[in-house]
Structures are given as structure tokens and as C-alpha cells.
Design brief:
Layout: H1 4-12, E1 20-25, E2 28-34, E3 45-50, E4 55-59, E5 64-67, H2 68-71, E6 102-107, E7 114-116, E8 123-125, H3 130-133, E9 144-148, H4 160-175, E10 180-184, H5 190-200, E11 201-202, E12 208-211, H6 224-235, E13 242-247, E14 255-259, E15 263-265, E16 274-276, E17 283-285, E18 291-293, E19 308-309, E20 317-321, H7 329-336, E21 341-346, H8 360-368, E22 374-378, H9 391-399, E23 403-404, H10 410-421, H11 427-434
Parallel strand pairs: 6-9, 6-10, 10-12, 12-13, 20-21, 21-22, 22-23
Antiparallel strand pairs: 1-2, 1-5, 2-3, 3-4, 7-8, 11-19, 13-14, 14-17, 15-16, 17-18
Helix pairs in contact: 4-5, 5-10
Length: 453
Amino acid sequence: MYSRAVERVLKAKKIKIGDHVILLKNGKKYKGVLLPKPDFGDPDTLLIKLDNGYNTGFRIKNIEIKNLRTKEPENVEKEVEYEFGKIGKRFLNVKFNPKKPKVSLISTGGTISSRIDYRTGGVYALEKPEEILHNIPELADIVNLHMMSPFNKMSEDMQPEDWIEIAKTIAKELNSGKKGVILTHGTDTLHYTSAALSFFLRNLRKPVVFVGSQRSSDRGSSDAAMNLVCASHIAVSNIAEVGICMHGATDDKYCLFIRGTKARKMHSTRRDAFRPINEKPLAKAWQDGTIEILNNNFKTRNDNEKVKLDTRFEKKVALLKVYPGSDPDVIDFYIGKKYRGFVVEGTGMGHVPTFAKKSWVEKIKKHTKDGIPFVITTQTIYGRVNPYVYTNLRKLFLDAGAISGEDMLSETAYVKLGWVLGHTKDIKKVKELILTNFAGEITSRTETETFLI
């Protein structure tokens, strides 16, 4: 709460939270919306959201504040009704041109579906998907959006059963005649979900475009609007793949469309956090609708084809990471919990402690004899596993029976192993399916120009 001194000033000026105000300080004028006081910080500091979208604070001392709505009503239209950041109902009547291509927008949560709670400084989930779009009118010039929200979760709370629910919703929308699907999702586990949908949606011949944002939609630096505009252009394009469409640079130049099994979040906060791994992006997309194809290895659109769902998934799969001194007894813990398969992030080309005091090779060998598959990936992220270069690798793959993850991302391999085990528990068949390229997750060779792009 604001201090009593601030409350007295606001009461005298008949100013309430959410009013459009002008602050005068040192001969300068600042115009914006009066925000609630967070639960922390200086109670004598007034907070306003400037018209450019950024927030700033002013000590109550030596400033003059005016209620802009009462002083200049003829020149001001209150664009947003604020209740701690909520949008008034009259601004949710988003209208689209029925002559534009029909595209479904499925909102599942995350930063792109959040707004700032000015009491805490954190963000909270929007209540309706239309709230994402109220300040992106240009979408109506690209697509005729049909909006829905099967659930609302931050991505760190996503579970495999959520992937299945999303897959069912997408298949229904595509098979009902939509030209494509845009799905908004939190960025932290976005690449897990995009990988899962890449395997779940068989016979896909329309675009499925995942979109997130690193800044909530009411921040001045938000990337939500541009990402959605670019995603809309991809959704009506000829690229019939599951992929992620987000900023390709820190500025607002263009977005990248990255295959869903080859994308990874590579930075916690940058707007261009998602990068393609071991493959070029499928395309660049600009806000004006320009699309530059960067990688011709994709399926093309066929609106007559129907998507087939294949969502069988074994949830008892673990993703483990080796490190110096790591204890392979952790595998026994998971086996005791009835886990049916493992993805192990090895070092370098897929190494695990071999002749160390506690050998991962011997532990893996013991359990592969019992029909438990171990898929080996590399924690270097870029590059691929090679079973034949070093003696230790030959012992792991040829003697212990581990399965090479080739150049799959660890996250993709984890999802794929769960999907494969949903179809068979026979370890020979599991190996065959893991080494089969279903959704562009394995490339035949590693190209040098795909590093750090």
C-alpha cells in the first residue's frame, strides 16, 4: 500500500488506481496510468505506467500530480480499464475477417498469456485467450482466428497428459478444416511440448506453430505481438511442420521458424532464446508476411490430408545426467519405482564413467539384459553421439547394449523414448524405432554451418 501521505494527496486530487495522470517534476511532464503499490518498496513512491509501456516511479515530494481524465476529457480516451492489469470486457470483442484463412489459436498459458500483477511485480495468467490479442489488430489482416483455451498452465507445470490433450485439440481443429494452428505456450518447456506433438501428430500436412514470449504482453519490450504476427504468416504458409516461431534476433527484425524436434531454449531471458540445434531453421518470417526458406527439408501443405493421432506414451521414463563422481545407483532407485527406460546425457560423444570407482557401464549392462533401454545423448548440445571412436564408447554401446541418440537433443530423445515405449517394450524393437527418423529429429550428417546459428 501507498503511505498515508500519498493517500492524502491522491484523495485530495480525486485520483484512483488506474486513472490516467500527469506528473510534473522539475519542469518535465510525465503522462501515464497510476499503478497500485507493490507489496514491497518505498511506500512514498508513486508508480505510473508511461504511455510507451514502461513503468517508472516518483517520490511524492516535490511533484505535482493531476488527474488527466478529469482535466482533459475531450482529448483523452481511456484505452484500458485497469483492475490490477485486467482488461475490460468491451476490449475483448476481437473481430476477424471471415474471408481470411481460418486458423485456430490455442492458448495454454505461460508468459505470453500473462500480465503483470502490480501488487507484487510478478505476472499472473490471463483469464481469456482474447486478452492476448486486444492490442494486436494487425492479426485481422492475416488470419481469421478461432480462439480457445483447453487449460491454462505455466510451462514448468506441464505433464505428458497435457501434451496428449493438446494433440487431441490440434487434430480436431485441423481435421475440421482449419488452415493451421497457432499454440501459445510458456517458454521454459516449450521445446518438450513441440517435440511431443511432432511425434503425436502423424500424417501432418498443415502448419502447427508454437509461440511463446519472453516478456508479458503488457510490457513495453514484449515480444508477444511480433511473434504472433510472424506465427500467423507461417500458419497459412506451405510449411506443414510442427515448429516454434519466435524472435530470431534481439531486435524486432524477424522471427525464426524452427522444427519442433530441433529447437531448444538457449537463454533464460533473451528474446531470441530459441535456437535450432544441429539443423538450420526452416524459415525466417517478417511481420510484413515475407517468408524466406532456409531449409528445404520439410513437408508441404496438403489440405485434403487428415491428421492421425498417435498419443501412446510411457510416462515412466527418466532423463539423467552424468558428471564427475556421479553415482549410477540412481538408476536402481528409478528401477525400483518401475521406470521402463532412460535417456542418459553423456559427456562429449556420449561418454559415461567407465573405469571409475562406480561404473555406469556395468550398471547399464546389468539393466539392458533385463530389457530396460538406455538412450545416450550428449550434454554438449551440439554435435552427435559416436559409438565407435573411443574404447569406452565401444564398451557402452557394443558390450553394455546402450542405444545411440545420434544428434537428437536430450529433451527430444526423452520425449521420443516415452513415445516409443508407448508402442513396444521389446528392447530390439525399441532400438530400431529410436534410430528411425520420424519427425526430423535425426539428421543423416552434421553440417558445420548449423553450429551457433
